[in-house]
Design goal:
Helix 2 runs antiparallel to helix 3 and helix 4 packs parallel to helix 7. Strands 1, 2, 3, 4, 5, 6, 7 and 8 form an eight-stranded antiparallel β-sheet that branches. This protein folds into two domains: 149 residues, Sandwich (Jelly Rolls); 109 residues, Arc Repressor Mutant, subunit A (Orthogonal Bundle). It contains ten helices and eight strands. With 285 residues, the protein is of the alpha+beta class. It is 46% helix and 20% strand. InterPro entries: AraC-bd, AraC_XylS_family_regulators, Homeodomain-like_sf, HTH-like, HTH_AraC, HTH_AraC-typ_CS, RmlC-like_jellyroll. One of its GO terms (molecular function) is DNA-binding transcription factor activity. It holds the Pfam family AraC_binding. Keywords: Activator, Cytoplasm, DNA-binding, Transcription, Transcription regulation.
Length: 285
C-alpha cells in the first residue's frame, strides 16, 4: 500500500538527450544498375537522400555545380533537393549500386554525420562495400525480416561512414599519405590479380619497404597484400565458375595460376573445399 504523503519522483531524460533518437529510414530504392551505352542523368532534384557506389567503370557526377569524377570503389551521396547530374566517361562502362532513402518527417542529421564533402571515400574491398551489396540483396527479397535487415544495414552504413569521416579528420598528414599508399597498393592488386606479382613490384609502386607494406596493409585491411591477392583470385574464380562454362584449368589460368594443381591447393586451403565441390553445392536437382 503506497503512502500518499510520499512524493512520486518522475525521472526524465536530460535536456541534452532530447531529439537524440530518430525514426528508422524508409528505403525507396536499392538496386544494382548496369548503365546503357549512352546513358546519363540530366540535371534533376530528388526528394530523397542518395548513395551512389561505383562497382565498375567510372562516371562524372556534378552536385550543386561541383564536379566529382568517380571510379571503382568510390561512394558519393547527395541530400534531398540538391541539383545533380551524371555523365558517363567516353568509352567507360558504368555499373553502380544506387540507394534512395528518407526519414519521413524526421529531420535526421545525415549531413552532420557525413559532412559537406559529397565524395565519402573509396571502399573497394572493404566492409562498407559488402554492406551495400547485402542491402540491395535483402531489398529484393520479400518479407518483414529482409525489410528490417535493410533498415539495419543502412543505419550501420551511416554509423561506419561517420566513423570513417572522424578517423580521416584526426589522421595526421603523414598517416593519411601512408593510408593513401595502402589504397593504391590494394587497387593495383585488384586490377592486376591475373598475373604474377612480387613484393618488389609493390615496393616500387609505393616507395615503401616490403616489411613496412605488410604491417601497414594488414593494419588498414586486416590481411597482408598477398592474402588480399588470394581473396581477389578466389572471388573471381567463383564468379567464373558460376557464370561461365570454363574448365577449372582455364579458370586457374584466368586468375593468375599457370599450374592448376597449385591453384587447387590454394583454393581448398582458403575455402575448405575444392572449386568443383563448391560448384556442385550450388546445383540442386
Amino acid at each position: 500500500m503506497s503512502d500518499e504523503s510520499t512524493p512520486i519522483i518522475v525521472h526524465s531524460l536530460p535536456e541534452h538527450a532530447a531529439g537524440m533518437y530518430f525514426f528508422p529510414p524508409y528505403i525507396t530504392l536499392a538496386h544494382l544498375f548496369h548503365s546503357p551505352v549512352d546513358w546519363g542523368i540530366p540535371p534533376r532534384r530528388l526528394s530523397n537522400y542518395q548513395f551512389q557506389y561505383v562497382v565498375e567503370g567510372s562516371a562524372e557526377y556534378e552536385i550543386e555545380g561541383h564536379t566529382i569524377v568517380t571510379r571503382r570503389g568510390d561512394l558519393i551521396y547527395h541530400s534531398p533537393y540538391q541539383l545533380h547530374e551524371l555523365r558517363k566517361l567516353p568509352g567507360e562502362p558504368y555499373i553502380c549500386i544506387s540507394i534512395l532513402f528518407h526519414f519521413g518527417d524526421s529531420d535526421y542529421p545525415v549531413q552532420r554525420l557525413l559532412g559537406e564533402n559529397r565524395l565519402l571515400g573509396n571502399f573497394n574491398g572493404l566492409a562498407i562495400e559488402k554492406k551495400l551489396t547485402q542491402l540491395i540483396t535483402h531489398y529484393h527479397q520479400p518479407g518483414l525480416s529482409h525489410h528490417s535487415q535493410c533498415q539495419g544495414l543502412l543505419m550501420e552504413l551511416l554509423a561506419e561512414l561517420s566513423q570513417w569521416k572522424q578517423e580521416l579528420e584526426t589522421t595526421t598528414e603523414g598517416q593519411h599519405k601512408i593510408k593513401t599508399k595502402m589504397v593504391l597498393i590494394r587497387n593495383h592488386i585488384a586490377a592486376h590479380f591475373n598475373r604474377e606479382m612480387t613484393h618488389h613490384e609493390l615496393e616500387e609502386l609505393s616507395g615503401l619497404s616490403r616489411n613496412y607494406i605488410i604491417v601497414k596493409f594488414r593494419a588498414a585491411f586486416g590481411v597482408t597484400p598477398f592474402e588480399y591477392l588470394s581473396q581477389v583470385r578466389i572471388e573471381r574464380a567463383k564468379e567464373l565458375a558460376v557464370q561461365t562454362n570454363m574448365s577449372i584449368s582455364e579458370i586457374a589460368c584466368a586468375v593468375g595460376y599457370s599450374d592448376v594443381h597449385t591453384f587447387g591447393r590454394m583454393f581448398k586451403s582458403k575455402m575448405g573445399t575444392s572449386l568443383s565441390q563448391f560448384c556442385s553445392a550450388l546445383v540442386t536437382d
